[in-house]
Every structure is written in C-alpha cells, then in structure tokens.
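A reminder from the course coordinator: this example appears on the midterm review sheet, so study it carefully.

Given structure:
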C-alpha cells in the first residue's frame, strides 16, 4: 500500500507537467491545424531558459520560472510570424516539413551553444523530503505539482473566461466565419502558437530541476505530448489534461510493478488499448476547444 501511494504521488507531479505539454499541443493543432514538431524543442528551450536565468542572471528559481515562460511565449510568437504566417494556406505537408526543420535547427542550436554536458538547475528547496504519512515527496516536486495546476487553471480561465479565449474557440469552430464576425484570425493564430509554446516551455522549466537539462530532453517529451493529444481527443483541453495524468499513471505503476525498463512502453500500451476502443480519443470534441 505504501508503495502504491508513493507511485500515486509521483503520478500527480508528472501528470501535471504532461498535461501542460498536451494542452499546448492540442491548442495549436486544434485551432491552427499545424502539427507542431518544435514542441519538444520548446520544452527544452524552457528548461535552458530557466537554467540561464538562475546561472547567468543569478535569479531565484521562483523568478526564473516566469522568465522561462515569457521566453517561450516570445519564441513561439516569433516562430509563428516568421515561419508559419508566410505558409498560411499551404498544404499540411509543406508546413510539417518546415516545422520539422525548425525543430532540428532549435535542437542543434541548443547543442552548439550549451554543449552535450547535462546541466542542473539550482533550486532553493531543502534536501529533506516532505513526509506525508508513510510516503515522502521532495519539496521541489510539491512545488512542480502546485505550479502545474496553477498554470492549467490559468489556461482554462483564459480559454473559457476571456475575450481572447472566445475568439480562439470561434476560430477553432470556423475561422472564416470568425473573420467575418470581426475576429483578427491572424492575431489569434500568433497568440495560440505563443501560448502553446509558453506551456511547453513551462513544462520544461518545471521538470528541468527534477531531472537534468540536456539538448535532447525534448525528443521523448514531444512524442508523449502527441500521444496525450491523441489519447484525450483533438480539441479538448480537458482531454489533454486527463490524458496527461493517465499517461503518467501508466508509466509510474508500470515502472513500479512491471519493470522500470518498460516505463515509457507501458504508457503507450495504454494509449493503444484506448484507441482500439475509441479511435477519436477519450474526450474528442468536434465543435469547440474547452
């Protein structure tokens, strides 16, 4: 029982960051119909931005986190303006090739600048874990879970309770009609890609101190983000959130009770099983983002 509780606590921490990855990707794919192959590179970018803010600028980790999120927001807006906006109206294959190239450039640039040696992000949290009954959890992981939940709540509030969110939902349903109603669809696309990128950067900045930071860390994260979107259902923020926790649950309990070597495989086996029953995903929504 103690071991199961420990895995459950680890699931909550990991699931929150997975949810951030999935939400960012489902926003971009759902509204813009763009397969964002830079998502993993943006995750890595967020981790390195937090590392630079702490190591180079001397900022506290609590200040480095918003710096990383804002940096991801800015980079996402730049990618949309420079690469995607000129391709608007092009076929999906062309856009995919451009995004694949952009992802490779970002990863290679990170390797060139920082080298292949892993970096550690310093945090102010004590080494002594928080004891919750028979299980323990590091203070860093507690903060990661709380911060991820806060960011998920902010995203829900943005999408469902603001004018920008209403415009984003309208663009998801029908971009042409939304444009006729006065929505600046070009701005919505830029904002959507920027917000999705910021969420990916946030996930990287949160998980960077938990593990280590290295140029290829976003590769597996990107694959998992796509899996979460497929599992939850395209266009559903709720589905991406729940899908992130389902994937984390499968990984944690698979590693604990089967083998740590099959940690990543267990999650994808769950996804395959779900899609065999419901190919559209668990929470697919045909009409709106939410």
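Designed residues:
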């Amino acid at each position: 029982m103690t071991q199961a509780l420990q895995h459950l606590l680890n699931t909550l921490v990991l699931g929150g960051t997975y949810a951030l990855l999935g939400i960012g990707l489902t926003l971009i794919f759902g509204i813009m119909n763009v397969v964002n192959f830079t998502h993993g590179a943006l995750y890595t970018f967020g981790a390195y931005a937090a590392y630079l803010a702490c190591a180079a600028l001397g900022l506290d980790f609590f200040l480095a986190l918003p710096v990383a999120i804002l940096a991801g927001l800015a980079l996402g807006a730049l990618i949309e303006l420079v690469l995607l906006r000129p391709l608007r109206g092009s076929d999906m294959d062309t856009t995919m090739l451009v995004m694949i190239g952009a992802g490779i450039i970002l990863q290679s640039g990170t390797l060139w600048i920082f080298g292949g040696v892993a970096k550690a992000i310093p945090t102010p949290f004590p080494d002594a874990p928080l004891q919750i009954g028979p299980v323990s959890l590091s203070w860093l992981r507690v903060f990661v879970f709380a911060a991820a939940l806060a960011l998920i709540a902010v995203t829900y509030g943005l999408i469902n309770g603001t004018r920008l969110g209403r415009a984003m939902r309208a663009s998801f349903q029908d971009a042409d009609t939304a444009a006729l109603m006065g929505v600046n669809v070009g701005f919505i696309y830029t904002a959507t890609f920027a917000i999705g990128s910021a969420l990916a950067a946030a996930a990287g900045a949160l998980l960077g101190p938990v593990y280590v930071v290295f140029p290829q860390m976003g590769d597996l994260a990107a694959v998992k983000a796509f899996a979460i979107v497929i599992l939850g259902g395209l266009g559903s923020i709720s589905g991406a959130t729940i899908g992130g926790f389902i994937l984390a649950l499968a990984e944690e309990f698979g590693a604990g009770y089967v083998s740590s070597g099959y940690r990543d495989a267990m999650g994808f086996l769950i996804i395959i099983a779900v899609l065999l029953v419901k190919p559209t995903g668990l929470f697919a929504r045909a009409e709106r983002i939410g």
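The chain has one domain: 2-123+140-277. The chain has a mean pLDDT of 87.
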